[in-house]
């Protein structure tokens, strides 16, 4: 899952070295939180107009998580 998020994010940004993903342990409800960090100048590319790209990233991650019976949440820091 972490590799999927890295691949998607690196495809969107210019500064690929600044892309970082950290993972929190599952909380009481079983939700695993992925924190995506990108360079300041690439935030607009990852969020998109009205948050459309960010929503799409979250949808892709949730769809992939269903296949492995996991609940995920993506936060863009």
State the helical fraction: 40-55%
Structural domains: how many: 1
Find the CATH topology: GMP Synthetase, Chain A, domain 3
**What top-tier CATH class fits best?**
Alpha Beta
Put simply, the count of helices is 3
Structural class: alpha+beta
Could you give the order of the helices and strands? HEEHHE
Mean pLDDT: 94
Tell me the overall shape: globular
Radius of gyration: 12 Å
* The CATH architecture: 2-Layer Sandwich
Biggest beta sheet summary = 3 strands, mixed
Question: What percent of residues are in strands?
Answer: 15-25%
How many E-type strands?
3
Distance between the termini: 18 Å
Q: How do the strands of the widest beta sheet line up side by side?
A: 1-2-3
Q: What would you give as the CATH superfamily?
A: K homology (KH) domain
Unreliable spans: none
């Amino acid at each position: 899952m972490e590799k999927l998020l890295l691949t998607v994010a690196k495809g969107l940004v210019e500064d690929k070295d600044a892309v970082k993903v950290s993972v929190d342990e599952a909380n009481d409800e079983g939700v695993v939180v992925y924190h995506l960090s990108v360079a300041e100048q690439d935030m607009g590319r990852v969020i998109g107009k009205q948050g459309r790209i960010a929503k799409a990233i979250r949808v892709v991650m949730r769809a992939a998580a269903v296949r492995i019976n996991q609940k995920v949440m993506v936060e863009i820091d």
